[in-house]
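Quick start: read one record
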Amino acid sequence: MNADLVDQPTGAGAEPAAEEIKAIRERIDEIDQSLIDLWLERSRLSQQVGRTRMASGGTRLVLSREREIVERFREALGPDGTQVALLLLRSGRGPL
């Protein structure tokens, strides 16, 4: 096999496969950045909701709302969705 055709970072030995993998990974990186940006925005908004709620005499947490979010993620993503939702919730309100 020609060494010029081997793309070590992708693990693919044939040029068409290496190029396809590279393109797919670039798209994955774009999606990852979008997820990070959305995660940070969601966290800021959640913190703003909490501050607004507490400033008006409300509680820090609304457990029924958190349960809705966990259930939505679980239904959409299965068991891993529960973990994703819990991480999102924690990033928005901090640890309990």
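The mean pLDDT is 89.
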